[in-house]
Amino acid sequence: MGLIRFLIITICSLYIIRSLVRIFLPMLFGSIINKAQEQARQQQNYQQQPRPDGRVRVDYKPETKSSVPDNEGEFVDYEEIK
Fold first, then answer.
1. Rg (CA), the chain
2. Angle at CA 77, nearest 5°, toward 71 and 82?
3. Dist CA 45 CA 39 (whole Å)
4. Per-residue pLDDT tens for 3-53?
5. How far apart are CA 10 and CA 3, in angstroms?
6. What does pTM read for this prediction?
7. DSSP-assigned letter for residue 74
């Protein structure tokens, strides 16, 4: 009797969970899709803003460093021997 009761409760639980997933999963994906679309619209609006002509703006200028420090030595010419 206990096995039959367990099977009935399990089958009913799985059926209820399956029904709830069919209802709530599309709602969840719909909200995620709406958020992604809104972000795409905002990004598109940001890119379409007019920029002033002829003006250059530099946000970051990296330091230029020599690949070999001055105290590392001298370059020596060599000849290739065949």
1. 34
2. 145
3. 10
4. 999 999 999 999 999 999 999 988 889 989 999 999 988 888 776 666 667
5. 10
6. 0.40
7. -
Q: At residue 63, what is the residue type?
A: E
Structure tokens at 3: 């096995």
Count how many residues are written for the chain: 82
Give me the phi and psi of 10, to 5 degrees please: -65, -45
The CA distance from 74 to 77, in Å, is 10
- Residue 11: per-residue pLDDT: 96
Is the confidence at residue 76, as pLDDT, over 90?
no
Tell me how far CA of residue 42 lies from CA of 32, 34, 45, 50, in angstroms. 16, 12, 5, 15
